Amino acid sequence: MASIGEILLNTLSADQQIRESATTHLETAANEDFKQYVVMLCQELNNEQSQARIAAGLALKNAMTARESVRREEMSTRWMNIDAATRDQIKALVLTTLGTQDVRAGIVTAQVVAAIAAIELPLGQWEGVIRDMIQNLSSTDNTNLRQCTLQSIGYICETIDRDILTSQANSILTAVVQGARKDEPSEAVRLAAIGALYNSLEFIEDNFKREGERNYIMQVVCEATQSQDLEVQVAAFECLVRIMQVYYEMMPFYMQKALFGLTVQGMRSPHERVALQAVEFWSTVAEVEIDQENYRLEAIDNGEQPTHTNYNFAKAALPETLPVILELMTKQDEDDDEDDWNLCMAAGTCLSVTAQSVGDACVAPVIQFVETNIRHAQWQYREASVMAFGSILEGPSQELLVPPVAQALPFLIEMMNDPVIKVKDATAWTLGRVSQSLAECIKPEVHLQPLIEALVRGLDDSNRIVSNCCLSLMNLADQLQGEQGRDSATSHMSPFFNGIITALMRITERNSNEAFARTSAYEAISILVTHTARDTFPTISALSTSILDRLEQTIAVQNEIVGVDERNSHLELQSNLCSVLTNVIRRVGKDISPIADRIMTVLLQLSTAASKSSTILEDAFLAIGALTTALESEFARYLDSFAPFMFSALSNHEEHQLCSIAVGIIGDVCRSLGPASASYCDNFMTTLLQNLQSPVLHRNVKPNILSCFGDIALAIEGQFAAYLDVTMSVLAQACNIRAAPTDYDMIDYVNGLREGIMDAYIGIVQGLKSSDSNLLAPHLPHLFEFMSTVYNDPERSDALLRSICGLLGDLAESFPGGDIKNLLMSEWVVQCLKEGRSSRQNSVTTKEVARWAKEMVKRATM
To answer: Over the stretch 515-539, which tens digit does the pLDDT of each residue have?
Structure first.
């Protein structure tokens, strides 16, 4: 039998069969006796003579941590079930192993220490681990021990909740700053210390607020940017980026004294990794200042004193930083992989966020750079000038941008003929930005034909530029649709629609999806169909036939597919085809009727062939939902055939997105069939109520279920009385769910849940309005109490305010005789309707609903 060392080494084998066999052996050992397993791994890790130490350390770490929260909890429980004496023995041994002569084994051991600490510290165990490691740092000359100890502290700081470590912030900070100083003889120790400092920045807030300590920290980090060791330089600039993110408000003094010069110098570094981090610093400055300005304006809109200050560092530094950024954008290489992040890309991104931050200040110097280089003999300068031009189209004022964009547009169209692919790709991207943000510069009678011809030629060029050509065409379709939107008889794009669709369909016929060209083409077809005018319907009709032909072909060959990659490609193709079909149905509406039978047959075949977990079911269901809405009552003839698939999806709680779409289809069916859907509602309501009680179903489906109750009530009107009491009981339970002030995920969920509750109440009130509103009378006090609670919640959304106003109006209309006068004259109701009508933050729709509701309430309380 192989020894533990041999088995561990086999887990690193290049031979897949050997590797999998060894992994299985280790998993079996862990499951049979976990205590013996971790002790054995720990001893192997500590054995200076073993060749399998690193493998042992990785296995030990992986036995205690996982990405998935459920799996992580299982591992934590398994570790804590080991007796305390054995755990203490393992912890002592790994702390000793940090000082091993093999630094690679020491680094893995640092990860093991952090994995154990991540389990025990939150449980109030191993509270002395930080103290013991800091003592190691102060009582040894062993460089490996100091390096690995600092790395372990860094890993712990990265993984443990900040509140757990705050009490030890002083000692941690002292240790890591001591190791990061410029007089530290070991650059490896210094690097580990800077990494630990990076990971500890958030919980040393109190230290950072003290000027003396802050000055020393900043001095140490700034000095590290000048280290002769490349890794230390990179880590120091990474640290400065994080400091700017976390402590922007405290940076004015340091920006003036050191950071301006250090980071501009860093951007000019011959080492790309250093330059990348220096560029990232200025991107971060711009991003933070965008947020600061938004916070400031929001406070002013709310009539509050702004608590956030925008120091405009990006604008002040622009004369120094912008020339360097533009220069870096020219550092393009013909062989650069477009998927690899490089200095040129980083500089372009930095320019884009800087433009959003500084606005008009960047326009003149960038335009000068463009004018100088747009016809440059070297393609790198042409590409940089076009990218720079596109990068400043968001942020500066439209008034300042329109003249240069209008002047540049003919040159940009001409540059789609550039002999260099990268220049054409950048040009297509910039044209997309123009068509998205400054479509008014595109004069249809002058620019549209040459622009579309250039983009269509680009579709037949390299796969690399197809995505950006498609993006430009999508933006044109969106921005240049007819004056009446979807109801327009024609549009500026109509004469080109058939040619564009033909060119895009050619792209979709390609066997490969290199650079996502095929996917982009299908997406462009979907968007063009969505925004086209009615005079293109004959082309859409032919398109729908082609899409159905292709879907039928994919179903015919489905059983012949072998291999994971081929199957994934096939599913992606079916998904793209379903997406186009869905948009065609939504666009033509009732006109889809002549081919509805064929569409439904194909979609049911897709659903039959798909597995329960296949994403293609979601795409097929979305298309069926669109068909339901388009056909209205005519969809009834398909319902018996489709119902088994729908109820299967509703009971498939593991695939919550599919389940959610199925819930939406119930709403579509009820809206389309109206009162005729009543015969199906017993099954609908039973299934939906069961789903609400499911402990397995993802919580995000439940707001949609509540909203669906409103759709059912609105459709079957007075017949909903049979379900009223149980529905109102369920809604009352949902009303009681609250979120903690700092639990932002829960706040979002509760807002979504409340929107679903409001949709349900609105549908029920409107549905019963025509029959017997008095059925609602026993529920009104609770309903008004819930609305008051939601209105007074500072986290409520604009959508919730609109729903409250709408429901108040519906209730006033349902009880016009003064029966609920006292409820409607509550102080909060008056305030709510006033805020809905007048607040600057509210959407136009919310204001309109609030005005209507006020009139209804006025009539009901006279």
So the answer is: 899 999 999 999 999 999 999 999 9
* 107 inside domain: yes
Output the pLDDT for position 817. Answer: 80
State how far the Cα of 659 lies from the Cα of 230, in Å rounded to an integer: 52
- Orientation of helix 721-735 relative to helix 681-693, angle to 10°: 20
Q: Which of 523, 525, 611 minimizes the C-alpha distance to 571?
A: 611
- Phi, psi for 510 (deg, rounded to 5): -65, 145
Task: State phi, psi for 3 to the nearest 5 degrees.
Answer: -75, 165
**341 φψ region: left (φ > 0), alpha (ψ -120 to 50), beta (else):** beta
The CA–CA distances, whole Å, from 191 to 99, 213, 225 equal 17, 20, 11
Measured CA to CA, the distance from residue 78 to residue 63 in angstroms comes to 9
Geometric angle at alpha carbon 95, from 90 and 101, rounded to 5°: 115
Q: What's the token pair of residue 356?
A: 């959003």
Query: Within 13 Å, how many C-alpha atoms sit on residue 111's CB side?
Result: 19
Q: In angstroms, what CA-CA distances link 467 with 49, 256, 279, 576?
A: 55, 43, 27, 15
pLDDT at position 559: 83
How far is the C-alpha of 689 from the C-alpha of 681, rounded, in Å? 12
Residue 155's closest CA among 118, 207, 191, 187? 118
Length of the chain: 862
Q: Phi-psi region for residue 140, left (φ > 0), alpha (ψ -120 to 50) or beta?
A: beta
Euclidean distance between CA atoms 506 and 526, whole angstroms: 15
Per residue in 126-159, pLDDT tens? 999 999 999 988 888 899 999 999 999 999 999 8
Residue with tokens 């009820």, as numbered in its chain = 670
Q: What is the pLDDT of residue 732?
A: 94
Q: What is the pTM of this model?
A: 0.84
**Euclidean distance between CA atoms 174 and 188, whole angstroms:** 18
Q: What's the CA gap between 722 and 712, in Å, rounded?
A: 12
Query: By the 8 A CB rule, do 283 and 223 touch?
Result: no
**Residue where the block lists tokens 């040894």:** 140
Helix (H) or strand (E) holding 191: helix 187-200
Residue 118 per-residue DSSP state: H
CA 784 to each of CA 101, 753, 758, 827: distance values in angstroms, whole numbers, following the listed order = 72, 17, 11, 12
Letter for the amino acid at 167?
A: S
Inside any domain, residue 480: no
Instruction: Tell me which residues of the chain have a pLDDT lower than 50.
Output: none
Domain span at residue 43 reads 1-126
Three-state SS for 697-747 is CCHHHHHHHHHHHHHHHHHHHHHHHHHHHHHHHHHHHHHCCCCCCCCHHHH
Residue 519 Rama label (left phi>0; alpha psi -120 to 50; beta): alpha
Whether residue 43 is contained in a domain is answered as yes
Q: Which helix (H) or strand (E) holds 524?
A: helix 517-531
Q: Is 271 within a domain?
A: no
Task: Compute CA distances 633 → 125, 220, 638, whole Å.
Answer: 65, 73, 10
| Residue 261 neighbours by CB under 8 Å, 6+ apart | none
Dihedral of CA 777/783/785/787: which sign? negative
At 801 the pLDDT is 95
Q: What's the gap between Cα 146 and its chain centre?
A: 39
Q: Which residues contact 68 (CB under 8 A, 6 or more apart)?
A: none
Total domains present in the chain: 1
CA dihedral 42, 47, 51, 57 (to 10 degrees): 20
Distance CA 757, CA 739 (A): 16
Find the largest Cα–Cα distance for the chain. 93
Name the residue among 396, 291, 282, 393 with its Cα closest to residue 346. 282
